[in-house]
Structures are given as C-alpha cells and as structure tokens.
Specification:
The chain is 45% helix and 14% strand. By secondary structure, the protein is of the alpha/beta class. Strands 1, 2, 3, 4, 5, 6, 7, 8 and 9 form a nine-stranded parallel β-sheet that branches. The protein binds S-adenosylmethionine, 5-amino-D-isoleucine (MD0) and iron/sulfur cluster.
Length: 363
C-alpha cells in the first residue's frame, strides 16, 4: 500500500511528466528493475495520474477480426507461423461483410482487420482493399489494418480505401533479438513500412514483446526505438509460448513485467494510446493493464465468435467472454467509461492534418 505521505511526491512526479519531463535511461532502468510491491504500485499510480490528465476515465475499444490465419512467415513466437501444422481459415468477402454487420451492433471505436502475411492477399492486394472497403461500408468506423509488411503503393491504396491506422509491431528494436524472433524478415523493411504509413496519413501502432529473451538493456533499446518512431499507439505483450513453435518450451513470464512496461510506456508517451489486450488474460487481465496506465481495450470479439485471437487465452472456453458489453460492464465497475466516437475520430483526424512528407522521388 502507498503511504499517504508519499502521494504528494508522486503527484509532483506526474505533474513534471505532464509538463514534458523526459525520462533518462537511468530512470527507465530503475523503474524496470522495481521489485517491491509498494514501489510498483507507486509507478502504476503515477502512470494513472498522467493518463487521467490526458484522457480522464475515458477508454477506447477496438474489435478484432482475424480474417485469415494463413501466413508465409516463420516467426519463432507465433502459433500461425507457416511451419506450424494447425487448422487455418480464410474468411471470404460475404463472411467478412456479415461479421462487419454484427460488429456494428457492438460499442466499439475501431475495427482491427488482422491477417497472417497470407499470399492470397499479399500477392493480390486488391483483395485486401476490397475487405477494407467492405468493412468501411458496413460499419462506417475507423479501420486499423494489421497485415504485416506491405509496400508503399499498397499502403497508399489501402488508406484511400478507408484504412486509418496501421498496426505493425517491431517486437523488439534490439536487432540481435529481432533476428531470432522474426526469422528471415528484414528489420529495416518492417520499420520503413510503419514510418511510410506515419508520413502518409495513417496513425501507427508499434509494439514489443516481453518474456522473450529481452533483458532490461534490450527492453530499453526497444523503448527508445519506439520513441524514435513517434507512434500514435504503443503496446507491450507478454510472450505466450505456442504449441508447435520453436519457442514452445520457453516458460511464460508473469504479467508483472508487462504491467511495469505499460506504466513506463505511459510516462514516455503521456498522451498516446496504450492498449490492454484481452488476448492474454481476458477481462480480469484488462483491469490490471488499465490500472497500470493503459487506455485502450483491444481484441474485443463477440461472444459467439469462432474467430481466433492471436494468443487466445480463451480458445478452449465454450463462450468467449471478451465482448464489448462485458468489457464495458467491468469498466464501469472501475469508474471508467467508453470514450465518445468523436473523441476517437479527433485522434485519427489529428494525424491526417500533419504535413504529409512527399517522397523526394515524387518532387
Ligand atoms: N501478421 C501480422 C504481423 O505479424 O504483423 C499480424 C498478426 S498478429 C497481430 C501479430 C502480433 O501478435 C505480433 O506482432 C506479436 O506482437 C503478437 N503475438 C503473436 N504471437 C504472440 C505470442 N505467442 N505471444 C504474445 N504475442 C504474440
Ligand atoms: C490484440 N489480438 O490487440 C490483438 C492483436 C493486432 N493489431 C492486435 C495482437 O491483442
Ligand atoms: Fe505470420 Fe504475423 Fe504470426 Fe509472424 S506474427 S508468423 S507474420 S501471423
């Protein structure tokens, strides 16, 4: 428990962060090394103070549509890597349209269209453009795309078709660790796609994994790497070992480290979007992540959905318990509320008005 005498000092730290104080690497190391429960609670308290200054008790909600689990890549951490002998699916346009009609009834701010790097779409990008157009038509909502690495021209065409947000997580900005995680995938290409999108009208999300061989120094490299990219949204997810993958025998880290990193992200990105993913520990886990300073709930799936999450804590459960109604009920029990759609649209539109850097070649 935090002592009353400490609150004033903690409020002063929060004030300084709100007024632009930047954390040093020593600060990051100190916060990431915290072990005592009381000290960790103080870190979460300051993170909540900073978040509440910019967002109040308002939370954003994203629904998650994993519309194809085929993938040509071989990420060591991912259940859907091409070498894993699993059941896969690919939704057709009618199924996606019906899903979008159902999503329209949920109270969410954005639809996250996610796929593996499925050659069916990557080799014929107009197929993915049709998916984005269909979901935009049916929902009228902002759209996040999580397609993996796409070329500049395709990103521009997707933006013109209604995609507002690109989620493309580096996993780590520590190049040595990157090579072991995103096997055979170019670090620079992945980084470029996010930067190109950011400079051409998209909001972008970067993210890292923890519990995947990242020590504190490696984590600091990733935090600074994300900071350099100036993303609109930043995330951290605890690595969950997946059957049939090269890292399946790694023991899963507790979420304590993820919660500390969420709070550190809040202190580094005071007014940005930071998600509490339902994929890891569902709605109970959401509470801890919001209390650590997150302000978005992601991976919302309707209770009768048979679609995958990414990590799927609830794959075996009869009924998914991560629909928007259950999420909002728990939010309200914490004194939090869904934000308005206007609040969210203002964030998206703010990105649109930033100067679009015209690639030199086009001058
Ligand atoms: N194929 C797209 C891509 O790789 O960018 C989108 C797929 S999904 C959104 C990919 C993300 O989920 C990864 O970038 C990683 O951050 C997260 N993820 C995948 N497998 C995971 C696991 N086993 N544990 C935790 N996070 C995982
Ligand atoms: C989530 N399952 O937010 C989703 C996924 C992709 N843009 C997001 C990792 O947890
Ligand atoms: Fe494919 Fe994405 Fe999974 Fe990597 S993380 S194997 S690119 S679905």
């Amino acid at each position: 428990m935090i002592k009353n005498a400490d609150y004033q000092a903690l409020d002063t730290v929060a004030e300084k962060i709100i007024n632009g104080l930047e954390l040093t690497d020593d600060n990051l190391r100190e916060f990431l090394s915290l072990n005592e429960e009381e000290d960790i609670q103080k870190l979460h308290y300051v993170a909540r103070k900073v978040r509440d200054h910019f967002f109040g008790n308002r939370v954003f909600l994203y629904s998650f549509v994993y519309f194809s689990t085929y993938c040509k890549n071989n990420c060591a951490f991912c259940y859907y890597n091409r070498c894993n002998k699993i059941q896969r699916y690919r939704l057709d346009l009618d199924e996606i349209r019906r899903l979008a009609q159902a999503i329209k009834k949920e109270s969410i701010h954005m639809v996250d269209l996610t796929m593996g790097e499925d050659p069916y779409f990557h080799n014929y990008p107009e197929r993915f453009i049709d998916v984005v157009k269909t979901v935009k038509e049916e929902t009228g909502l902002p759209i996040m795309i999580s397609p993996g690495v796409m070329d500049d021209n395709t990103l521009n065409r997707l933006h013109e078709s209604g995609a507002n947000f690109l989620a493309l997580y580096q996993e780590t900005h520590d190049k040595e660790l990157y090579r072991k995680l995103r096997v055979g995938q170019s670090f620079e290409e992945r980084k470029h796609a996010r930067e190109f999108a950011r400079n051409n009208g998209y909001c972008v999300e970067d993210g890292i994994l923890t519990g995947v061989g990242n020590d504190i120094d490696s984590t600091i490299i990733s935090l600074r790497g994300m900071q350099k990219g100036n993303p609109d949204m930043v995330r951290v997810m605890t690595f969950v070992p997946q059957e049939g993958t090269p890292l399946e025998l790694v023991s899963q880290e507790s979420s304590l480290s993820e919660l500390k990193i969420i709070s550190v992200l809040r202190l580094m990105f005071p007014d940005k979007l930071i998600p509490a993913s339902l994929d890891l520990e569902g709605i109970d886990g959401m509470v801890h992540r919001l209390n650590a300073g997150a302000n978005v709930v992601t991976s919302i799936i309707s209770s009768d959905s048979s679609l995958e999450g990414v990590v799927n804590y609830d794959r075996e459960l009869e009924e998914r318990d991560r629909d928007s109604r259950s999420v909002i009920k728990r939010l309200r029990s914490m004194g939090m509320e869904p934000a308005s759609q206007d609040d969210f649209n203002r964030i998206i539109e703010k990105q649109q008005v930033t100067p679009i850097l015209v690639p030199v070649a086009a001058l």
